[in-house]
Structures are given as structure tokens and as C-alpha cells.
């Protein structure tokens, strides 16, 4: 018979007091997962690099050193130089600004539109819901990259705000579809029906009753939009749609490809590619942590694994169940406090 581990925990008979800080902690509980924490730390490093780029970069992004053309990494140039003697590390640092600005700005625009259209179309009924749903379907089939190419061709030097706006306007439809489906399942819940029966206005029902229950999906949609925007920006820069004056990691790859850096001058293109991959991993870790928080099956599996590690059990052992059995609060006649029991029964 396989081993069975049983954990006994005490329960408090008194009601839990709800405070502002407890509600705030519950709202951000999705980010307390170790995966989310790791992703947020990596993402925070990139944000700090973007903010303090002028202080961190050893040279200007276009400053040239004629005595060090196409030089490999050295003490003077940690990531080498380009064909014109420009410091690659400085370009990576300054290029982080464009990536962070476009990624977050486009995600904010797309998330606001997705919340507005998705939640309203999921809550209301009739022709209004169908009209908003049809609008979402139209934006689902609009190709984003060709539209950005057309918009960028109208500007001699399109600013990052315009690029972020176009990426945001073409990237909200998927999030709106998910929010609409979840809102349709929430509108028939008892607490929504009670708020409607009390005569609560629509804006309060949506902002106070529904949005807190949709925070995990909104956060996941935001992270996914940031990822798509960063990949879209670097792709457009690499194919030459965005002017090279808008420095980012994609333009570094563009100049490396145009000047024959592949594959010999590895220090020119590998750092930019690694930065794209690392920020993608960070955003994926945040998304994994949110998924584990939203999905009860994934959350219970993670909690069970952590409980087993605390008790010195191997997660890979053939354990059939780890159950949390509440023990009644001890009365005055009981002198012994509940303890954690681990029961192992083996086949004879």
C-alpha cells in the first residue's frame, strides 16, 4: 500500500477580521507566488535600467571610438563595439528605454479598452452586448503589423507614443473576449443579483462587485499584452519599419544584420537577443504565477508540494494524499495542543 501523509492543522473558531491591508494583500496574492516574484524581480531590473540609463551607460549610444572598430569585449567596451566604434553595452542600456515605454504604454491602452468593452458587453444584454461583441470580433481579425507599417509610413520619424498607441489599439481584442466570457458567468451570481436588487448603479456593480473578481484575468491580459508589444516592436525595428533613430533592441539587431555581423561578430547581436529572451522569460514567469493562483488545481498542487517539503517528504515519493484535517479548538478540559501527525502505512 503506498504511503499516505496526513497533516493536522488547527482552525480558529472566531471570525477573521477584514481590514484594508488584508483586502490589499488578497488583491495582490497572485504576485506572492515564487514564480511571479522571480519574474517581477527580473522585470524590475529592466525598468530600473531604463530609468537610470544615462547614469548606467558608460558612453553615449551614438558615441564613436574610431580606434576600436568591430572590437570584441574588452575592459574599455564590456560588450564590444559596432562597425562604427559604438559601444554595444551603451546601446543595449539606452535601447531598454524604448522597449519598456512601448511595452507598458501599449499594454495600458489595450487593457483599459479590453476592460471597458469586455466587461460591459458581458454584463449588459441585447443589442448592446451583441454590438460590442461584433466590434471585438472585427479587431480580432485586423492584422496589427501591416497596420503599423501603414501608420509608420505617414511619419518621417514616428514617436514611440504613436507606435505604442497602434500596438495597444490592435492588441485589446483577445483580452476583451476573455473578460466578456468571465463577466457573463459572474452576472448571474448571488452577490451581483443582490446588488442589482438593491438598485446599485451599473458603474458601481462593475467597479466594486465585478472588477475585484476579474483582477487575475486582467493582470494576465496585461502581462500578455506587454509581451506581444515588445515582440512586435523588436520585430518591426528588425525589418526596418521603425526608423533607426528610435533606438531599441530591434534596431541593434537590424544594424548587425545589415553590416554582416552574423555569425562572426557575436557580441553585436547576442546581447540584444538575450535581453529579448530574458524579459520574455520574466513575463512568462509572472503569467505562470497568475495561472497557479487562478487555477485551483494548480494552486492545490503547489501548496501540497510545499507542505510535503516542510515535513521532510520527497515530492516524487508515491504519496497518495496530503490532507489538511482541521482539529477543533481545544477546550478548557484539554491540556494537550494539537500537533502535526504524519502517518505512513506500508504494505506488509
Explained architecture:
The protein is globular. The chain is mainly α and 348 residues long. Residues 6-15 and 332-348 have low confidence and may be disordered. It has helices spanning 20-27, 34-51, 53-56, 88-123, 127-141, 144-153, 160-169, 173-186, 190-197, 202-210, 215-238, 249-258, 266-294, 296-310; strands at 3-10, 319-327. Helix 4 runs antiparallel to helix 5 (127-141), helix 9 (190-197) packs antiparallel against helix 10 and helix 13 (266-294) crosses helix 14. The longest helix is centred in the first third of the chain and has 36 residues, at 88-123.
User: Rounded to an integer, what's the Rg over CA atoms?
Assistant: 27 Å
**What percentage of amino acids are in beta strands?**
under 5%
Identify low-pLDDT runs: 6-15, 332-348
Morphology call: globular
Helical percentage: 55-70%
The main sheet orders its strands as: 1-2
Secondary-structure map with pairings?
Layout: E1 3-10, H1 20-27, H2 34-51, H3 53-56, H4 88-123, H5 127-141, H6 144-153, H7 160-169, H8 173-186, H9 190-197, H10 202-210, H11 215-238, H12 249-258, H13 266-294, H14 296-310, E2 319-327
Parallel strand pairs: 1-2
Helix pairs in contact: 2-4, 2-13, 4-5, 4-7, 4-8, 4-11, 5-8, 6-7, 7-11, 8-11, 9-10, 11-12, 11-13, 12-13, 13-14
Compact summary:
This protein is mostly helical. It is 60% helix and 5% strand.
Amino acid at each position: 500500500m503506498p504511503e499516505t501523509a496526513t497533516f493536522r492543522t488547527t482552525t480558529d473558531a472566531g471570525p477573521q477580521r477584514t481590514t484594508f491591508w488584508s483586502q490589499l494583500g488578497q488583491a495582490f496574492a497572485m504576485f506572492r507566488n515564487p514564480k511571479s516574484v522571480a519574474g517581477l524581480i527580473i522585470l524590475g531590473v529592466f525598468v530600473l535600467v531604463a530609468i537610470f540609463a544615462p547614469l548606467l551607460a558608460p558612453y553615449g549610444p551614438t558615441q564613436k571610438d574610431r580606434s576600436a572598430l568591430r572590437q570584441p569585449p574588452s575592459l574599455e567596451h564590456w560588450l564590444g563595439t559596432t562597425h562604427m566604434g559604438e559601444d554595444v553595452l551603451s546601446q543595449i542600456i539606452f535601447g531598454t528605454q524604448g522597449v519598456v515605454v512601448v511595452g507598458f504604454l501599449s499594454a495600458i491602452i489595450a487593457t483599459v479598452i479590453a476592460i471597458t468593452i469586455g466587461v460591459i458587453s458581458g454584463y449588459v444584454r441585447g443589442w448592446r452586448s451583441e454590438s460590442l461583441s461584433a466590434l471585438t470580433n472585427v479587431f480580432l481579425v485586423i492584422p496589427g503589423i501591416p497596420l503599423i507599417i501603414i501608420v509608420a509610413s505617414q511619419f518621417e520619424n514616428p514617436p514611440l507614443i504613436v507606435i505604442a498607441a497602434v500596438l495597444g489599439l490592435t492588441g485589446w481584442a483577445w483580452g476583451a473576449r476573455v473578460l466578456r466570457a468571465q463577466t457573463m458567468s459572474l452576472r448571474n451570481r448571488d452577490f451581483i443579483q443582490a446588488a442589482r436588487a438593491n438598485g446599485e448603479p451599473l458603474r458601481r456593480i462593475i467597479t466594486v462587485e465585478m472588477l475585484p473578481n476579474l483582477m487575475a484575468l486582467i493582470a494576465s491580459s496585461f502581462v500578455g499584452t506587454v509581451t506581444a508589444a515588445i515582440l512586435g516592436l523588436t520585430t518591426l525595428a528588425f525589418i526596418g519599419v521603425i526608423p533607426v533613430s528610435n533606438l531599441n533592441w530591434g534596431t541593434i539587431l537590424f544594424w548587425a544584420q545589415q553590416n554582416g555581423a552574423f555569425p562572426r561578430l557575436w557580441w553585436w547581436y547576442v546581447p540584444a537577443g538575450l535581453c529579448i529572451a530574458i524579459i520574455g522569460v520574466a513575463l512568462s514567469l509572472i503569467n505562470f504565477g497568475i495561472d497557479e493562483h487562478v487555477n485551483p488545481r494548480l494552486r492545490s498542487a503547489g501548496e501540497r508540494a510545499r507542505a510535503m517539503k516542510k515535513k521532510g517528504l520527497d515530492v516524487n515519493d508515491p504519496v497518495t494524499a496530503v490532507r489538511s484535517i482541521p482539529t477543533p479548538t481545544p477546550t478548557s478540559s484539554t491540556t494537550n495542543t494539537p500537533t502535526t501527525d504524519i502517518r505512513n502505512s506500508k504494505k506488509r
